[in-house]
Every structure is written in structure tokens, then in C-alpha cells.
Amino acid sequence: MFQLSADGKKKVQEYLKRYETKRSAIIPALYIAQQENGGWVSPDVVKHLSEVMELPMTHINEVLTFYTMFNKKPVGRHHIQICTNVSCSMAGGHDLADYLCERLGVVDGEMTKDGRFTISRAECLGSCDTAPVIQINIDDYIENVDKAKLDQLVNQLK
Amino acid sequence: MEVKLLTEHYDKPEFKNIEGYKKHGGYEMLKKAFKMKPKEIIEEVKASGLRGRGGAGFPTGMKWSFLPDNGETRYLLCNADEGEPGTFKDRMMMEKAPHQLIEGMIISAYAVNSTKSYIYIRGEYTQSIRTIEKAIKEAYEAGYLGKNILGSGFSHDMDVYSGAGAYICGEETGLISSLEGKKGQPKLKPPFPAVQGYLEKPTIVNNVETLAAVKYIIRDGAAAYKKYGTEKSAGTKLFSVSGDVVKPGNYEVPLGYSLKDLIEKECGGLKPGRKLKAVIPGGSSAPVLNAEESYRATMDYECLAQMGSMLGSGAVIIIDDSRCMVDLLNVILHFYHHESCGQCTPCREGTGWLEKIVTSIMSGRGRPQDIDLLDTVAQNMKGRTICALSDAAALPTISFVQKFRDEFEYYVREGRSKVTGKQLRRHNNRGHHAEMHH
Asked: Mean pLDDT across the stretch B199-206?
């Protein structure tokens, strides 16, 4: 069963007081819990948050299922999201995604067998002047990506 | 020529910090604003002709004056959920000039008598969130936020809220739902947020660029601000240019600026040997312009509306003659299908059907009647939903089919792209990715 760490619990409690209503703390709480649960939100995470936050599970599930930055199934340690919207696809975003999927032997959204990677195609990340752009987990963007840069990244990430 | 009001100090790294910002006149306009009456600021913003820079272009001063005078708590929300494909101007501002936004927000909050504001930033913008959080902390420490700011008697609190990946939260009522901790589904208007918004209290939602511009209207006065631009499109505007140009980036030019000059003078023109085919002038929901229209267009609300398109968020996507328009429409439609929140049938179903039809054409299974079917489905999605997302998928579709019909006909007839000569079956393994909100 998932349990928030002491620090995670403290942060969630702070978010519960930070906004006008407790429900506004659901998004930040899900971010914290997702990170502590290895990158995804399982049903027992929802149950635990519901108890800690004293909010019905339906409220938490409503948020969880609506927003794409919460993963509803396990993802690799490095969730590589490749932007394939207009400007990035013009700069080769789809080709990069195809290339990486082939190299790792997975399809979109699938985790590699060793649990290292999940590859997804993302919608516009808002960095169109440095296309194509990727985001790994919830971290700063990596810009002007090409196959060589991608290879280098994949080799480095353990 | 660029006119740099909002972007003047983008190249100075110290502008990010409060000390550096103050060196360049930072927070002086807040002091000036406190010497004015709130009503005077609203009148000044009205007189400036400033219109919302997020996409809808609604007059800012008028929006502010819709607030009821009933003594209820008023909220100011900064819409930093920049998600319109092609747009990256708000991210750049938050990262390079966070205090400029905060100062503009405090002035605006004072004008509309709001005690609490939020900057709602899309969750992917990790760097923006960090930078803004730090800047807000600095502003509190310097006494520009909190109780009785600079002895003015005006108190204001400001906080950041991170979204979690949903384009629809850029729609103001969707943003409010999201901030309340719910699904980010838009609501029917009226009631407008100014009357019944966040937690059903009077709420103003303004874009990042809009709120930052308020500072410069206070600095230079409405008359000086209005000198830039055209009669109905006052001031300067940030354009995020991407796609097939030599120097993509954010450029600040007066509204009414020639699109041809923007491409050739600011962005270094097209790539060598290429010809212009089309321009999406205001983000992917704006109907596409062909080359002839693009070379005649001026970047203002009225000219682009006259051409059947829109200024939108100011995201300009340049498309050269190496691009397949069927492929680009497919990318756009995949996006709107993915982002439809699902509550209105014409949008939920329509965006899906539009994507399916174009995907079918791209895989070589297109039928001649599919081209008119695209238009029929799109026509039936227009103006029939709670928010503008349905139109955002329908209008580009209608324009792509109308202006580049030959490419669609060729693809259906030959089973391959007229431009590349190949069949572009790149979306066949996207099943796992297409995770809908509904």
C-alpha cells in the first residue's frame, strides 16, 4: 500500500491550507504522490490521498483522469515526451519519436522491459522556436533535439 | 522594425532579479499608479485601446469595468496556461522578465480593487514556475506585495498555481474550474467571470502579456501607447514566429505591422531556395492564409479578421513549399481531438471524426467524397458549443480544404502526398498516446 513520506505528507498539509478551498490542493498533492510512487498514480495512491486530505476519492479521480501530466499506469524512470505538434513535427518531432520507439523496441506510451524508458508524443510544449523539443519527466525542456542528441541522452540515462 | 516596450530588457540576465529589475526602473510605475485613483487607471487602460493578448482580443478596460460594485472579494487571475500551438511568448516573459508581469499585476489589482491574485501557469513550464515563485518571494520581501503596500493602504496577496496538462484550461472559465481543483471544463457564459468567477466571486482573467502591458500604459500614458498600432489595434504585440524561417523567435512589433516584413526583416526570410506556401497567423486555431494573402496581410485584429482568420495569441507559423498541407491538418486535428474536454457533443464527436477522415486520407484509404465531408462536419461544429475549442478545430479545417483542395484531391486520387510523393503513415502507432479527457 502506498504511503506518502513524512515530508510529502507535510507538504500536502501545507497545500491544504494554502488555497481558499481544500480541493485546490489536489493537483499539487497528486504531483507529490506521483513522484513518490515512481512516476504514476495507482488506485491505492488515490485512496491514501483521500484519507490524508479528507476528500472523497471521486474528487481526486476527477482531477487524475482529466490532466495528462498524471500517469495512470506505470512509466519508465525516464518518461521521454517528444513534442509532435505543428512546429515540432515540421522540425522532425515525429521522425524522432519513430526513431526512438524503434531503437528501444516499444510503441508510443509503452515502457521498455528494463523499466528505463517510456516514450510519448506530446502536444505543443510552447518552445516552437527551438523545435523539436522534448521533456523528460517533469523537468526543464531539452531544445533543438536531433537523433545524435537523443542517442547521447538515451545512453546517459540509467 | 521592432519596438521594444515589453521586451526591452530581455537580453539582460539581471532583469530576472528584483535588484536588476529596479536598476531599470522596476516598481517605479507601481508608485506612480498609487498616486492615481483606481478609476483613473481603468480609464487610462480603456483609452489606451489595449485588447486581451491571449487570443480573444477583448478590450481589457471594458472587461475590468464589468465588475459589479457589491463589495464582494475580487480575484485577479493571470492566465499563463499558454497552450495555443505555436505560442511561446508568455513563457519567455515569465523567464526573462518575471517582475514586469508582477508589477503589471499589482497595478491591475489596485485598479480593480482585488486583494488576491493567482498566476496559473501550465504544468510543463517548470522553469517559468520556479522563476515566478522566486520573483513573488522577492516582491514580498521588498514590500511590493502583502499588507499596506508602500504605505498606500492597498493590500494584495499573490500566488502561483500549476496546471497539469490540459489545453482547455487556457479558456478562462476552464482555468477557473481547474484552479478550484476540478476538471478544467469551461462553463456557459453568462454569467461572465467578472460577475461570477473563481469560487463564484467576481474575477478578472487576463493574459500574461496583457497584464505586463498595463505597466507601460501607466508609464507612457494611453495617448503614447495608442500611437503604436492602428485605430482598432493599439500598441505593440509579441509575435512568436516558428516554422520555416531562418530566425524563429519572439518579436515585438507595433500592431498593424506587415507580415511580409515580419518574415523577411525580423525573421531573416525563408530558408534558401524555398517559397512561401502558407502562414498560420494566430496559433493553430487561426484559419490558414495562402501565400498571396500572407504577403498582403498586416498583423492586426481587423485585417486578419477581414481575411477570415484571426490574430489570436500572436503565434505565427510559417509554412514553405516543402510541406504537405494534408499532413499539417492531421497534426492540428490530432491536437484538438486530444484536447477536447468532452462535454459538448459537436466538439467531442466532431474533432474525432475530422481526425479520422484526414488520417484515412493519409493512409491511402481516402474517398473522393471525404473532402466535402470534412467541410460538412466542420460546418456543423461551428458556434454550437460552450467554448471556442470546437471552432478552433472547425475553422482551420474549412480553410485548409478550401485553400489547398488540390493537395487533398491528389492525396485521395493517388494515395500519396502531392508534395512529398510519399504516403505519410506516421500516426499508425499512436493508439497508446491518444488518451482522451473523456
From this structure: 98
- Cβ-contact B204, B89 below 8 angstroms: no
| Res. B437: pLDDT tops 50 | no
Distances (CA, A) of A83 to A134, A136, B86, B424: 6, 11, 12, 18
Compute the C-alpha angle B303/B306/B307, nearest 5°: 90
pLDDT-flagged residues of chain A (< 70):
none
| Residues in chain B within 8 Å Cβ distance of A62 | 182-183
Q: Which of A53, A64, A66 to mutate to test the interface with B (most CBs of B within 10 A)?
A: A66
Of chain B, the percentage scoring pLDDT greater than 90 comes to 95
B428 vs A: CB within 8 A? no
What residues in A contact B177, CB-CB < 8 Å?
none
- Considering the four listed CATH numbers 2.40.50.140, 3.40.50.1970, 3.40.190.10, 1.20.1440.230, the one that applies to the domain covering B325-414 is 1.20.1440.230
Q: What is the pLDDT of residue B426?
A: 57
Q: What is the CATH number of domain B237-320?
A: 3.10.20.600
**ipTM for the assembly:** 0.97
Say what the alpha-carbon torsion angle B60, B63, B64, B70 is, to the nearest 10 degrees: 180
Structural domain including A107 reads 78-156
User: With contact defined as beta carbons under 8 Å apart, do A154 and A148 qualify?
Assistant: no
Whether B249 and chain A come into contact, CB under 8 Å, resolves to yes
Among chain B residues, the shortest Cα distance to A119 is held by B433
**A65 contacts in chain B (CB < 8 Å):** 437
Convert the pLDDT of each residue in B40-62 to its tens digit: 999 999 999 999 999 999 999 99
